[in-house]
């Protein structure tokens, strides 16, 4: 029988990779989104406002799936609102599916803000010792990730399905219009540097420049999601998920610069955030898009300066232990440098960057 999946947030960086992975495995895939970006090929698109419980129930009334995957959030003005809005989106979908998910599986993608705290208190509390491990649990702060988890746990108990929670680090992957996309942001930044004959200046902190870190390829995350949905060892468990290698930005920055044939400049005493330095990027990118006949002239649909600043500006070392999923049977691995280069190649092939 054909397996059936619902991906909530199908057009995002995680949803796109997961849809590609599942359709390649001959799954039947429905994708929920707000309709701002086309869904991946092979998916059946459902456009709905996830905050509207009645609309979600109506949209899903005729759909029965084996697995539902959540990769969705909507940034609000504060964490209280983040909790209200983002928890409701998970709850609305699970309540709409109800007993039709009995015996199935639901997976929730969150991230390392589980350990670092939400944006309102990012890295300001008693951050656990690295590498982060699942056993370290929750931090004593409000966090919409925890609220989403609680909705998942409650629905799993009510409707009798298994669950898994997946915590990637910063994700490398292909998606347009995504709010958190470091790989594409760095590709756009490097392109601007090359066209304007400017150096590729590291924007972040000394701690990130010198410390050990890791990242997560979107297709590796998709592989873990597929494994968790079909493995007895993964039921009702939380898992970190990263590529499996570690690096320092003081090395990786030069590797990315060499790919684009530009001059790298490392940390020179003070962070130089991109958001403050990219004030002219909108106009410059429109000119570049016209000159090279690129598909996307709106730089805000490609680059998320604020999010890349947040990741590269962290005042502490951040990397992750993935022993738990390895012991449970998931042994996926990616080379982070290769993941960057593969993304850059795909952006070129799709005429997103010149």
TrEMBL record:
Superkingdom in the source lineage: Bacteria
- Return the Pfam families for the record: PRISE (PF22917)
Q: CDD domains in the record, alphabetically?
A: 5beta-POR_like_SDR_a
- Looking at the record, the residues that make up the PRISE-like Rossmann-fold domain are 54-354
Q: Which InterPro entries match?
A: NAD(P)-bd_dom_sf, PRISE-like_Rossmann-fold
Q: What PANTHER family does the record tag this protein with?
A: 3-OXO-DELTA(4,5)-STEROID 5-BETA-REDUCTASE
Return the protein name: NAD dependent epimerase/dehydratase
| Annotated organism of origin | Duffyella gerundensis
